[in-house]
Amino acid sequence: MDQHGEALNRFLVEVFNEILKTEENALAKAYKDLSLRELHLIEEVCRAADEGRDNRATAIAAAQRVTAGTLTTAVSLLERKGYLERRRDERDKRVVRILPTARAREADARHARFHEEMVADILETLTEEETVIFVRALGSVSAFFRAKHKETM
């Protein structure tokens, strides 16, 4: 690996870890009972509900890239904590929907504000041209990880 490759590798590892730690610390003050993974599950359930997407367990599990069993365990725990609820579909009683509670909506809103602040702070330092290049480069990083994920499935 050349000098640029080493610098990029170090950057990706450090930034990824720093984002997760900072995000977790920022939210831990207000939501001590939630892990970052749980918060991202809440975020997914909120988006599915808001966007009219499939909010059955199988769809949520696929979106989160976890097994159905892992999702069931997480949803059960978040139900006990008062963040999610399971509700039978009114038209097809065999279908169970996963829905956010008001408490989940509050946590999701706080989480969204953290992300908005992060993005605004980064964009504030970049020119329009740099922003276009940065977004394109991050798209390549994202495509790499999506492809690697598919290989492991």
Keywords:
153 residues, mainly alpha, Arc Repressor Mutant, subunit A, two-stranded antiparallel ribbon, 6 helices, 2 strands, 7% strand, globular
By DSSP, the count of extended strands is 2
The CATH architecture designation is: Orthogonal Bundle
Oligomer: single chain
Strand content: 5-15%
CATH superfamily label:
Winged helix-like DNA-binding domain superfamily/Winged helix DNA-binding domain
Q: Which of globular, elongated, flat, extended, rod-shaped describes the shape? A: globular
CATH fold type:
Arc Repressor Mutant, subunit A
SSE string:
HHHHEEHH
Overall mean pLDDT stands at: 91
**Number of DSSP helical runs:** 6
Strand order within the widest beta sheet: 1-2
Share of helix among residues?
over 70%
Please give the radius of gyration in angstroms: 18 Å
Biggest beta sheet attributes: 2 strands, antiparallel
Query: Which runs of at least 5 residues are low in confidence (pLDDT < 50)?
Result: none
Number of domains: 1
State the distance separating the first and last CA atoms: 28 Å
> Could you name the CATH class?
Mainly Alpha
Structural class by secondary-structure content:
mainly alpha
GO molecular function, one term: DNA binding
Keywords: DNA-binding, Transcription, Transcription regulation
Protein name: Winged helix-turn-helix transcriptional regulator
Domain HTH marR-type: 1-143
